Amino acid sequence: MTPRLTDEETQRELRELLENACNNEYEDTDISEDRTGQPERLSISLMEHQKVGLQWMKKMEASKNKGGILCDDMGLGKTVQAISLIADNNDERIKIKATLVICPVSLITQWEKEVLTKTDPPLKVYIYHGAARAASQAELAGYDVIITSYNVVSGDFPKKEAKETRKEQKFKRSLNNLKFHRIILDEAHTIKNRRTRMAEACYLVEATYRWCMTATPIQNNVEELYSLIKFLRIRPYEEAKKFKEEISKPLKRGRHAEALKRIQILLKAISLRRSKKATINGTPILNLPERNVHMTHIDFSSSEKEFYEYINSKAQARFNKLVAEGTVMKNYSSVLVLLLRLRQACLHPKLTLEDGPDNKELEEHMSMIVKEMRPTVINRLLENESNLIEIMCPICLDTPDQAQIISSCGHILCRECLYSKNTNLLNTTEGAMKKCPECRGQLVKDDVVTVDRFLKEHAPEKYEELLKDGFSEETQQKVQDMMMSSKIGKMIEILKQTKKDTRGKDKTIVFSQFTSMLDTLEEPLEQNNFKYVRYDGGMNVRKRAEILERFTEDPKITVLLISTKCGSLGLNLMDIWWNPALENQAIDRVHRIGQTKNVEVHRIFINGTIEDRILQLQKSKQSLVDGALGEGTGQKLGRLGLEDMMYLFRDGRIPPSMGGTPDFILPATASGSGSGSGSGSGSGSGSSLASSSNNPQ
User: Which chain positions lie within coiled-coil regions (predicted)?
Assistant: First the structure.
């Protein structure tokens, strides 16, 4: 890692960074004709804005920064521009020409296909994943492009050691023993949390040139941008102290204009961002069809409304208790769980019911595992029993819907991350022993138990408390028997109308954060004669490719169900988040180069619920991000604060932080709360359907 700078060196670096910003002429306006032509090895014709992008990337590599952030809108061809840069490697003096591409596992095959089909002769590609990780350094050095996943890089990262030695450690395998010509992080916002093993592993990989590609360099707060700066080694801001002094602290102390101006200058110096509305010499860079967003507000049925009001009253009572105690922010994760239940109730009441063991044999097996857990692990979990069901998953940084405990070490993950092929935690086909992402201890599928089963055995009082917070057996049965919620009914109505209007030719993508919601959607689709395929985290890479091919090629299949945790990495959303970046990404997966017909986006909301307030938060978040990127006026950046939570749980008056009036008064007891843990990327519960006759790329 680079040494710390002296005050004199810091000032010099700042002057050079500012000079680079002033010399960056690549704006969303007129651009000169002087731009890089077509690399000889590229087999496709670059669009004009992509030629501009290639010229900018070559200029950045020739500068002191040796890289930067390509943050064009999704759908403008960031991957093509990166491949063009790789194909332009024609300096024979370079001993190692290999470019390392780190991307989500769901995009590995897409990257491979793009490289092989867009270069002639094809660049040599190596997939560093699974059993193929045994390749020697000499073998890797002979390839043009090496593609791997964030999880693989994180898995090769050393175990946690003393802080003073950790930075000096090297990877056990080949990646860190080889200095690459170039490293590219695709979907670079994946490392937005600088404290994760994933981010730290990426920081350590050595390369002459370093690139981040993401349409959303900032989603919730500026600390996410710092992680990218640290990876890129942009001086002087790669030093956490300097970033905090110049940017983070001014924001926290209310000096928003000053901080946002610095962020804009910094981004201008190291990034290229074009929107789909950008022009070159007065001509739009893209002529895309229209994107029409339809906002549909509907009412609950009487039974759904009664159910929601019950959930809402309990959530408000719990939140009011935390406010009175002044401990809201100390129980941040717990509050997100309350919001989670309200969102689920808007989709379908049965999503709020916890799933128990499937059978008696499984119940007995888990009971045995719980009893055999080591006393030290049991005691550590019991010390934190009040927060066990609200703890953050270390992989997705979300509050688990169904928390799972690894019995050998006691660390907790969400069920989807644990069983997902994306994380590869329990997939033993590669022959390697799987490890806990927290402590790197041995991870065996049969040694995983649910949190409620642990509490039933070792904290029966807490377990009984959970049962009291639940529903009667009669209520649970009524909910389980309900097939069609109001929201699902409206979705079916829209699908039928689309089928009628287009004679069954248009295709629709339906998104949900909850795989249980995807399960719930299947029966109504079948009963209404809609042929569909499903794409979620439980599938391996090749299965996903097969599903997308079927959706693309089979005219009878008109609906694609997709999990948000997949969609944010490569496709689209059925729930809204108060962070609008994920929903925008989803829509952009359809509204992109190659689309020839209008994209119709249907957003379905339930009147008089938390969804109305989440919509307002979405607008606020978008304003914050736009301000940092120089695309709007900008307001304070940050995760959900106490005012935001008061707004969501109480009377709906807009707090000052969102442009409301000063009469929004916080109770005196609430102002002294401590800092909570976890991320501010909680979610809302609307519905989004993207419909068109073309298919996502």
Answer: none
Q: Return the SS3 of 603.
A: strand
Pick the range with the lowest mean pLDDT from 75-79, 344-348, 357-361. 357-361
Distances (CA, A) of 513 to 121, 531, 561, 642, 684: 41, 21, 11, 25, 10
Give the residue numbers spanning the domain of 453. Answer: 360-470
| Confidence at residue 276, expressed as pLDDT on a 0 to 100 scale | 78
- Domain assignment of residue 400, yes or no: yes
Say if residue 15 is exposed, middle or buried (CB neighbours under 10 Å; 0-12, 13-18, 19+).
Answer: exposed
Report the share of the chain in percent with pLDDT over 90: 19
The verdict on 411 and 464 lying in the same domain is yes
- The rounded Cα 625 to chain-centroid distance in angstroms is 16
- Alpha carbon 99 to its chain centroid, in Å, reads 24
The SS3 assignment for 685 reads coil
Rounded Cα distance, 601 and 289, in Å: 13
Of 470, 494, 524, the residue at which a domain comes to its end is 470
16 within a domain of the structure (yes/no): no
Measured CA angle at 217 (ends 660, 621), to 5 deg: 15
Q: How far apart are CA 42 and CA 40, in angstroms?
A: 6
pLDDT of 266 strictly over 80: yes
The count of other CB atoms within 10 Å of the CB of residue 526 is: 11
Query: pLDDT for 30-51, tens place per residue?
Result: 444 446 678 889 999 898 889 9
Co-location of 574 and 597 in the same domain: yes
CATH of residue 217: 3.40.50.10810
Closest to 338 in 3D by CA, of 357, 317, 354, 356: 317
| Element housing 272 (H / E) | strand 271-272
Choosing from 216, 244, 279, the residue where a domain stops is 279
| Mean pLDDT score of the chain | 72
Tell me whether residue 31 is in a domain: no
In this model, does residue 56 exceed pLDDT 90?
yes
Percent of the residues in the chain that have a pLDDT greater than 70, as a whole number: 62
Do 411 and 432 belong together in one domain? yes
DSSP 380-414: HHHHTGGGGGGPPPTTT-S--SSEEEETTT--EEE
**pTM to 2 decimals?**
0.56
